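#struct-help
A.M.: can someone run this one for me? Single chain, 146 residues.
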Amino acid sequence: MSRPTDYTAFATSFRRFLRASSKSTRTVETYGEAVDQLGQWLDETDDVPDATGNLTRSQIEGFLVHLAEQGRAAATLNNRYRSLHRFFAFVVDEGEADDHPMERMTPPQVPDQPVDVLTENQVRTLLDAAGGVHSSPCATPRSSGC
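D.P.: on it. Structure tokens below:
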């Protein structure tokens, strides 16, 4: 990754691999974005390794911390982690690295975000606004009046 052409070749090969594996267009884009963002961050921090296989866990953790400090959501960090994990598995599979730098890392946790549930009165109000559906014989299970 020290030279843009090296990095571009890995990223391009990875995208081709994903497409050949029948991954969705959005998956290819998402995984590719994570790889591109990591490369950009490494370039900006002047923490560029000699080759993609020489990246360290510390560098990847630094990238994830950088994203968190930018206010990125936990789900985004988890997404980037999983994308990069797959990328480095690809690099190892291709023989470009002996070790997977994320092998012993754990993904960032995504906290549960409970969804507000409507109260019974709110549901009634909503149904009334929709034309009183809740009073229809078809609105109850097993009703025979439909």
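A.M.: thanks! Residues 115-146 form one domain.
D.P.: also worth noting: The two ends are 66 Å apart (CA to CA).
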